[in-house]
Each structure stands twice: as C-alpha cells, then as structure tokens.
C-alpha cells in the first residue's frame, strides 16, 4: 500500500509540471527564422528601383567657352578650306610653289602641293591628249609636205543605227577619189573623237589602198567643257602647214585658223563637197604658201571649194592665158606666171 501511494504521488506531480511547461511555451510568440544580411539587401533592391544619380550642376561659364571653341574651330576650318579652294582655282601649281617658298614652316604646304600634283596628273590622263607628239617626226625629205587632217564621221562617212538592222556606215560620194588623189601631195591623217575600237576597223575598210598614213582617236583629243577637241598643236607638225577638213571644223578644233569647213554629210548621195575641194587643196600643195592660215582667213564665211572656183574664173577673165594641157605643163606654167598673192587660180585636174 505504501509503495503504490508513493508512486501515484510522483506521477501526479510530474503531470502538473508538464502542463505548466506546455502553457509557458504557447504563451511566448513564435520566433522568426534567421536570414543572412545579403539576402535581405538583395530582396530590398529588387523591390525598390535604384535612386536616380544626382544631377550635375550646370556651369554657365564652361558651357559658353565650349560653344565659343566650337565656333572658332568651325570658322578656322571654313577659312582654310576657302583659302585652299581659291588658291587652287586662281593659281597654277608652279605659281603656288614659287609663292610659298618662303613659307615652308610646316609640312602642310608640301602635303597640299603633293596632293594637288597627284590629282592633276590623274585628271590630265583623262583630259589631255595621250602625248605631246601625236605623230612621229616628219622625214627630212618631206619637210615641205603639208599635213591634211580629216575628220571621220559626217566628213568622210556617216554611221547610222536602226533597230531592225543595227549599225550601218555609208561612204560620202567621192571619198575614194578624194583620198587617192590628194595622197600624192599630202600627209593624210584621220583625227576622230570616236574610240579607237570604232575608228580602226572603219578606216581599214574605208582606205584599202593605204592613202591614210596615221589615224588618231579619242585618246588623242583634249577634253574641255564637256567636249572632245582636236588639238592640232600636238601633232608634231608646223602649224603653218596644217589643214583640218571637217563637217564641224570650227567647233571641233582648238585651232580654228587651220580649219577648212565643209557641209556635214548625212547620206545625201548628190553631195559633191569633197570633189569640189580637190582643186583648192591641190593648188595649196603645189604652190606651198609660207603660212596657210591667212589664206584660209581670206575664205572665211564662204564655201572654200566653190569660192575657189569663182575666184579662178575671175582671175582667168582678168588675165587671159592659154592653159596647158598636161599636168607637167600646168605645173611649169604656174611657177612661171603666178605669184603667191594670186591664190585662187584653179588648174584642171583628173580625178
């Protein structure tokens, strides 16, 4: 009995302590779990955007000085560009080189001169004739021979294109007789502004007897004001002994004083311009005036072939003489009775 009583008291006392402990634990608030500081900062930064950077304080003085500096640099650059442009336009390369000899304090002027020289050489290759001597030297025994320069298109022939047949080239009436006869007296040169790929095959078909000594194409012309001009000064011949025959002579050469204009030809089969010109050209070759340019100037405004025939008729009326029959007699007659100022006498010829 006593042992059971002691056991029951111990159990009742333990049960009371257990209830007291459970009541104390429920009365206290629950504790939060521990979290690292870096996790809290990251969570805070993800939820709230970062504050904007502080605005830089504007300094009025610095802003004005920077604007003035830009304006000064722009003005200086514009002035230098204008000065270089004016010098390039107003002075040649040699003139600038001469004027700037005492101002070679930096490499800027030398760089400008080198750059301009390089550019001018490149441009010259497209605008100037391919050589200063387009023809070889004349043989010493032919120094007295005149040079007859002939244009090609609308002068000796005419090229026409149509869709149904393509390109066709027509020979001017009398061109064969013209070339064959005058080749006895002249050095004949064809000078065209067409490309060589056109000039060469056309001349080969036109001149099957070899009357034309030389042919010059677009590479031998001078490009100026949007046009290709024949520069007769580059032919390596005495300009006093050059005649340039063309359907557009006055507007296609830089030396109009050597021009012999004829009507441009466009497939008129009744045209006689080349044949009409033979007497005049033969007379020039036979009598060799010291300078052909004043002779051509006396025919300015006239059709030279027809005007020459009219003057010859008037001269025959003023000085009636018997005309020899053979070419040798005509040549001897001319040297004996006619002077250079009697230019205009026409001797018959066989074409």
Automatic annotation (TrEMBL):
Gene3D superfamilies associated with the record: HAD superfamily/HAD-like
Family designation: Belongs to the TIM50 family.
Lineage: Eukaryota, Viridiplantae, Streptophyta, Embryophyta, Tracheophyta
SUPFAM superfamilies in the cross-refs: HAD-like
InterPro entries registered for this protein in UniProt: FCP1_dom (IPR004274), HAD-like_sf (IPR036412), HAD_sf (IPR023214), TIM50 (IPR050365)
Keyword Membrane found: yes
Organism: Dillenia turbinata
Magnesium keyword on record: no
Annotated GO CC locations: TIM23 mitochondrial import inner membrane translocase complex
Record-level GO BP terms: protein transport
Protein name: Mitochondrial import inner membrane translocase subunit TIM50
Membrane-topology annotation of the record: Single-pass membrane protein
Subcellular location: Mitochondrion inner membrane
UniProtKB keywords: Membrane, Mitochondrion, Mitochondrion inner membrane, Protein transport, Transit peptide, Translocation, Transmembrane, Transmembrane helix, Transport
TM regions (residue ranges): 71-91
Function, as annotated: Essential component of the TIM23 complex, a complex that mediates the translocation of transit peptide-containing proteins across the mitochondrial inner membrane.
Record-annotated FCP1 homology domain positions: 141-284
Self-association and partners: Component of the TIM23 complex.
């Amino acid at each position: 009995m006593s042992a059971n009583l002691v056991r029951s008291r111990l159990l009742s006392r333990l049960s009371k302590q257990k209830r007291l402990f459970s009541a104390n634990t429920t009365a206290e608030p629950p504790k939060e779990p521990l979290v690292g500081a870096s996790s809290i900062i990251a969570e805070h930064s993800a939820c709230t955007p970062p504050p904007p950077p502080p605005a830089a304080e504007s300094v009025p003085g610095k802003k004005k000085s920077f604007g003035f500096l830009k304006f000064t640099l722009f003005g200086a650059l514009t002035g230098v560009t204008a000065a270089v442009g004016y010098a390039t336009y107003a002075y040649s390369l040699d003139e600038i080189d001469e004027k700037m000899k005492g101002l070679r304090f930096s490499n800027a002027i030398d760089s400008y001169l080198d750059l301009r020289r390089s550019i001018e050489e490149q441009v010259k290759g497209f605008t100037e004739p391919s050589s200063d001597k387009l023809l070889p030297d004349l043989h010493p025994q032919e120094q007295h021979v005149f040079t007859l320069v002939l244009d090609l298109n609308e002068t000796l022939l005419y090229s026409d294109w149509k869709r149904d047949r393509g390109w066709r080239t027509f020979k001017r009436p009398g061109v064969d007789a013209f070339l064959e006869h005058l080749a006895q007296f002249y050095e004949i040169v064809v000078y065209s502004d067409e490309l060589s790929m056109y000039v060469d095959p056309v001349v080969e078909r036109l001149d099957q007897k070899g009357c034309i000594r030389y042919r010059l194409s677009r590479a031998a012309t001078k490009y100026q004001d949007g046009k290709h001009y024949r520069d007769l000064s580059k032919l390596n011949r005495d300009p006093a002994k050059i005649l340039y025959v063309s359907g557009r002579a006055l507007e296609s050469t830089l030396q109009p004083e050597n021009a012999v204009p004829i009507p441009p030809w466009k497939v008129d089969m009744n045209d006689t311009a080349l044949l009409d010109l033979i007497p005049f050209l033969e007379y020039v070759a036979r009598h060799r005036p010291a300078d052909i340019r004043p002779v051509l100037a006396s025919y300015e405004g006239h059709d030279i072939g027809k005007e020459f025939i009219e003057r010859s008729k008037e001269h025959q009326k003023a000085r009636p003489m018997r005309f020899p029959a053979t070419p040798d007699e005509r040549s001897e007659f001319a040297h004996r009775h006619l002077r250079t100022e009697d230019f205009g006498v026409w001797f018959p010829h066989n074409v």
